[in-house]
Amino acid sequence: MTAVAVGAPRAATGARFFSDTAVLTGRSLRHILRSPDTIITTAVTPIALMLLFVYVFGGAIDLGADQGSYIDYMLPGILLITIASGIAYTAYRLFLDMQGGIFERFQSLPISRSGVLWAHVLTSLVSIVVSLAIVIGVALLMGFRTGASIGAWLGVAGLLVLFTLALTWLAVIAGLSAKTVDGASAFSYPLIFLPFISSAFVPTESMPGPVQWFAENQPVTSIVDSIRALFAGQPVGSDIWVAMAWLVGILVVAYAISMSIYRRKIS
User: Fold this and answer.
1) Is the pLDDT reported for residue 19 higher than 70?
2) Which InterPro entries match (predicted)?
């Protein structure tokens, strides 16, 4: 990190925020490059689930003639599970920094306070994007095909990035609030499980009444249905707006809570 005189003015301009965040993000990314098993582990579980569902359970699931192959149907849910798996490492790394006194050292330097958290968030985004690329590559080898246009691919990318940011800021809350390492990462387990009670793997019409109601009214279903429609080159309808409302709402609330906790921690 660039040396800065202790006691220099703490006020951070917009340029200072971006430069500080870039330096701190580079620091976090170097840690990941030294330990690439983080990205590999994030991708292994979704790939294992793809293999299990496509080659073991796929033949027993009736999607109807208009739904195409099962790998095409279930890939959106697998991508969301990939993201939910990856954010656990964000909470873990943030917790270790808090416990190791790194944040206290940063407070003696005239750097942007929020830049410290954004560095962890951007590091999470980069590592998860790499994991998503690996999972999509394996899906293509398994027979995934899409007629999506460039615009549709950009729409899918936008939803996945927004989903990653929303969940990563939730991970920041866990990393700042946890008392143990296990507690920092365990919060992601319900998020990984959520796609299983949605339209990610089977149509919601096949579920019992109360489960169907929950599946159709939780955020994952609208996100999955939007990504699936974009991959298939079909109209997304109102699902995209429902998905965007969920994602933006979660992101704004999680960011506000994270910054509030962070200010209390460093005050």
Assistant:
1) yes
2) ABC2_TM (IPR013525), ABC2_TM_bact-type (IPR047817), ABC_2_transport (IPR000412), Nod_factor_ABC_transporter (IPR051784)
Q: What is the average per-residue pLDDT within 80-96?
A: 86
Predicted pLDDT of residue 222: 95
pTM of the model: 0.85
Neighbour count for residue 199 (Cβ, 10 Å):
27
Query: CA-to-CA distance for 188 and 91, rounded, in angstroms?
Result: 9
Domain spans, the chain: 35-266
Q: Give the separation between CA 43 and CA 56, rounded to whole angstroms.
A: 20
